[in-house]
Each structure stands twice: as structure tokens, then as C-alpha cells.
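Saturday, quiet lab. Running sequence design on the C-alpha cells for the scaffold JK sent over.
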């Protein structure tokens, strides 16, 4: 039997983790893709070892009071009896398959990252905003983690949470300055406006967030399809939006007095919002395929990681600017 396919299996385990010991069809597909059709017998043996639970059993230590040699012999016999004997295949083929899986699953071939991919997953929930952040982290920074989650639970959870994630990335940046103004921490309302106008606007935005997430949750689509575009748009929009509203605030402060600052800011804010929206749409279309390819390859680009870091910094800055007196520090500066 060829050592080539043994080495290929080892590399695939190193890339994809222990999911290969659980999903026979996925394992078979990857082996065909990487080894070609000339190794049909070897691929048949290795994928059937997954179906029989042999590969997964090899992840565990031998039972107590059982030597490894005896344990492996038992697995070889079990595999032969269940999968090969009725086909009149040689028992040495069962031995080769078990030994090949043992070689591929050696601890040296399982990095700590890959070993943890399939351990103790907690299902994502659209009712938990922390799961939005987890999904965003997986999409942009740890796509292999999302691949492993998809293999275990399918795409339904990620689609549900993904659509709420997109809704949050779209509406939360808008909510923060308006809510801060409603609480009296950011901008005064124009004198001719009702006193609670910012609170009313905040309630309206929260309603838009809920409706967008709910309607998005009804539809179908893959996380790497329309959700990908939404995540990219929300990420880029958030960064550009923060820069834009700070610029709008500084501009309004320069051209107006305190009593008219709120109205001047609102005008500048609307202009900045549309500029950020248009730029985000254009950039999201341009880089959507890059994110998709990163997911397929399981390796995020440095540009994507930089964008994620900028988004995190932008949200921290926006919270400081609106709720912690950052705008007063900039005005005094």
C-alpha cells in the first residue's frame, strides 16, 4: 500500500482536525480531492474506518489493563469482520487502515488549535448578543472554527445568528450617539424640538434593529453568501461611520455656537452617514470574495484581521466619545 495517501491523511488531519474521524463522507471527499482516483481502495478503507468508528476510537487511550498491541489487534479484527470479510478482502488491508489512522492521529500531528476545534461546542443562539461577537470572530479571524461548528451543527444556527449580527453591525453604531444624547451625555436637542426627541429616535432605531434581525431570520441563505456581504458591510461601515461622525461633530462645533450645535451636528451627521454608507457598499462588494476564499482556505488574510481590529477600536472610541466625555475633550483641545 502507498505511503503517499498515509502522508496525505496526516496532513488533512493537521489542517481540518478531528472532524475527519467523525464524518466519513467529508473525509472521503477530501481524500479524493487531494489524492485522485488512483487510490480508490485506500480511500475506501480509510473512509470505512470512519464509518465503523475505528478512527474516532483511536483518539482515546487503550482500555485499562489492555496493552496497545492487543487493543489495536481488536480494532483490526473488528474492522475486518464488519467491513472487509464479506468482500473477501485480505485482513492486512484492515491492519493497514488502522495503522494509517493511528499514524495520522499521532499527537505530533494535532496542534493545540486543531485539537480544540471540535471540543465542547456550545450552540450559538440569536438571543445571546455575545454569540454575535463569537460568530464575527470566527468568520473574520478563525474560519476553521466555523467550519468545525458547521460540520457538527449544520448551517441553521449560523444563519440565524449571522442575520442578527448583520442587523447589529448596521444599527448599533447609529444607536450609540443618539442614545447618549437622549441621556444628556452627548448633544443637546435643538430648542424647537420636543425634549425627548433623542429617546424617541433611540426607540425607533431599536425597533429597526429588531425588525431587521427578525425579517432576516425568516429568509434563507448561507453564512458565506448574503451574510458575508452583510458582515463586511457592517464592519466597514462601523469604522468609516465613527470617523465620519467625529469629523461631523468637529465641523459642526467650528461653524456654530452651543445653542445651534445640535442642529448643525444633525445636518453634518446625515451627510457623514450617507458618505459612510456608500463607501461601505463599494468596499464590501470589492472584498467579499476575499473573505469567502479565506473561509474556504481556513486561513484569514492579514487585511481581514486588521479590519477586525479597527472595528473593535472604532466601537471603543465611539463609546468613549459619546458616553465618557470624549467629545468635550476634543472640543477643548
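Result came back. Writing it out in full:
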Amino acid at each position: 500500500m502507498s505511503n503517499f495517501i498515509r502522508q496525505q491523511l496526516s496532513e488533512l488531519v493537521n489542517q481540518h482536525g478531528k472532524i475527519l474521524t467523525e464524518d466519513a463522507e467529508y473525509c472521503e471527499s477530501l481524500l479524493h480531492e487531494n489524492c485522485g482516483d488512483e487510490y480508490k481502495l485506500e480511500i475506501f478503507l480509510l473512509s470505512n474506518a470512519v464509518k465503523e468508528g475505528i478512527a474516532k476510537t483511536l483518539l482515546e487511550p487503550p482500555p485499562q489493563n489492555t496493552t496497545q498491541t492487543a487493543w489495536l489487534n481488536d480494532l483490526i479484527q473488528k474492522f475486518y469482520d464488519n467491513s472487509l470479510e464479506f468482500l473477501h478482502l485480505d485482513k492486512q488491508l484492515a491492519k493497514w487502515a488502522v495503522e494509517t489512522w493511528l499514524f495520522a492521529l499521532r499527537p505530533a500531528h494535532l496542534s493545540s488549535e486543531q485539537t480544540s476545534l471540535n471540543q465542547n461546542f456550545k450552540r450559538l443562539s440569536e438571543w445571546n448578543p455575545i454569540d454575535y461577537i463569537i460568530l464575527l470572530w470566527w468568520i473574520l479571524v478563525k474560519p476553521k472554527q466555523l467550519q468545525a461548528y458547521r460540520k457538527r451543527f449544520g448551517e441553521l444556527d449560523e444563519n440565524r445568528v449571522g442575520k442578527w449580527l448583520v442587523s447589529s453591525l448596521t444599527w448599533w453604531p447609529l444607536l450609540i450617539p443618539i442614545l447618549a444624547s437622549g441621556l444628556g451625555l452627548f448633544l443637546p436637542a435643538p430648542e424647537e424640538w420636543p425634549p425627548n426627541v433623542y429617546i424617541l429616535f433611540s426607540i425607533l432605531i431599536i425597533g429597526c434593529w429588531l425588525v431587521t434581525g427578525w425579517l432576516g431570520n425568516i429568509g434563507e441563505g448561507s453564512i458565506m453568501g448574503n451574510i458575508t456581504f452583510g458582515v463586511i458591510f457592517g464592519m466597514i461601515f462601523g469604522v468609516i461611520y465613527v470617523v465620519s461622525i467625529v469629523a461631523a461633530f468637529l465641523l459642526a462645533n467650528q461653524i456654530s455656537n452651543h445653542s445651534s450645535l445640535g442642529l448643525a451636528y444633525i445636518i453634518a451627521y446625515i451627510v457623514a452617514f450617507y458618505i459612510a454608507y456608500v463607501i461601505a457598499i463599494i468596499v464590501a462588494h470589492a472584498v467579499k470574495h476575499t473573505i469567502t476564499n479565506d473561509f474556504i482556505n481556513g486561513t484569514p488574510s492579514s487585511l481581514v484581521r486588521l479590519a477586525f481590529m479597527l472595528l473593535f477600536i472604532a466601537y471603543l472610541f465611539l463609546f468613549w466619545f459619546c458616553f465618557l466625555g470624549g467629545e468635550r475633550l476634543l472640543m477643548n483641545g
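Notes for JK: Residues 122 and 149 are 9 Å apart (CA to CA). Residues 129-332 form one domain. Ask whether to fix the surface positions before the next round.
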